[in-house]
Design goal:
The complex is a heterodimer of chains A (115) and B (114). With 115 residues, chain A is mainly β. Chain A is 0% helix and 53% strand. Chain B is globular, with a radius of gyration of 13 Å. Chain B starts with a strand and ends with a strand. Classes of the chains: A mainly beta (115), B mainly beta (114). Chain A binds chain B through residues 32-33, 35, 39, 43-45, 47, 50, 52, 89, 91, 95-98, 100-105, 107-108, 110, and chain B through 33, 40-45, 48, 55-56, 88, 90, 92, 97-100, 102-105, 107-108, 110.
Chain lengths: 115, 114
C-alpha cells in the first residue's frame, strides 16, 4: 500500500528565510510518481511539480527546488527567500503506475510566512 | 474559461436531506475524480471514473453515488446527509488516469450539514 508522510504539520518563517518541507513516501512499486500541490488560503489546489521514480535529478524553478532521494524515500521541497504569498498548505502526493493509479496525499504542511 | 468547474461553491443543508454537486471539465480528459478534504485538511480519494466507467471506489458510504453521464461530467449525489459529511469536496480530472499525469482540480464545494 502506498503512503505519504509529511511530519511537519505547521511551519512559520519570517519573510526572506529559506524553508524546507519534508516528504517521505512508501510504495512497493518500482514505477511511481511524486507530486507537490499548493493550497493557498483561497482553497484551490495548484499543481507544482511531478517526478517519476526513474528521474532523481533535482529540479529548480525560480525560488522553488525539489530534492528527490530514492535511498531515503524522500521528496523534499525548498522555498528560497520565502515571501508572504508563499503562505499556504503544501501537499506531497504519490501515485503508482500499477493497478492502484490513485493519487495518495500526505496530510499537508501549513506554511506561514510572516512579514 | 475554467478547466474544471464544480457547482455549487457552498452548500448548506439540514441533516437527512439529499443533495448533488456537479462537476464539468473542458480539458478533453478521460478520467475524473472526487476527493474529500476534511476539517484537518486531509485529502482522500472517493471515486474515479475513466471513460464513464467506475475505476476506483474507496470505502465510502453507499449514500454517496457518483454519476457520469459523459466523459466531461462527474456528478456526486449524496443521500440522507449526516453531520460527518461536512467537508470540502473537490472534483478533478486527468488525461488518461494512468497515475503519471497531474490532476486538475476544481475550486471545491464547501458542504456544511447542520
Amino acid at each position: 500500500a502506498q503512503k505519504v508522510t509529511q511530519a511537519q504539520t505547521e511551519i512559520s518563517v519570517v519573510e526572506k528565510e529559506d524553508v524546507t518541507l519534508d516528504c517521505v513516501y512508501e510504495t512497493r512499486d518500482t514505477t511511481y510518481y511524486l507530486f507537490w500541490y499548493k493550497q493557498p488560503p483561497s482553497g484551490e489546489l495548484v499543481f507544482l511539480i511531478r517526478r517519476n521514480s526513474f528521474d532523481e535529478q533535482n529540479e529548480i524553478s525560480g525560488r522553488y527546488s525539489w530534492n528527490f532521494q530514492k535511498s531515503t524515500s524522500s521528496f523534499n521541497f525548498t522555498i528560497t527567500a520565502s515571501q508572504v504569498v508563499d503562505s499556504a498548505v503544501y501537499f506531497c502526493a504519490l501515485s503508482e503506475a500499477g493497478s492502484a493509479r490513485q493519487l495518495t496525499f500526505g496530510s499537508g504542511t501549513q506554511l506561514t510566512v510572516l512579514p | 474559461d475554467t478547466a474544471v468547474s464544480q457547482t455549487p461553491k457552498y452548500l448548506v443543508t439540514q441533516m437527512g436531506n439529499d443533495k448533488s454537486i456537479k462537476c464539468e471539465q473542458n480539458l478533453g480528459h478521460d478520467t475524473m475524480y472526487w476527493y474529500k478534504q476534511d476539517s484537518k485538511k486531509f485529502l482522500k480519494i472517493m471515486f474515479s471514473y475513466n471513460n464513464k466507467e467506475l475505476i476506483i471506489n474507496e470505502t465510502v458510504p453507499n449514500r454517496f453515488s457518483p454519476k457520469s453521464p459523459d466523459k466531461a461530467h462527474l456528478n456526486l449525489h449524496i443521500n440522507s446527509l449526516e453531520l460527518g459529511d461536512s467537508a470540502v469536496y473537490f472534483c478533478a480530472s486527468s488525461l488518461k488516469g494512468s497515475g503519471e499525469e497531474k490532476l486538475f482540480f476544481g475550486s471545491g464545494t464547501q458542504l456544511s450539514v447542520l
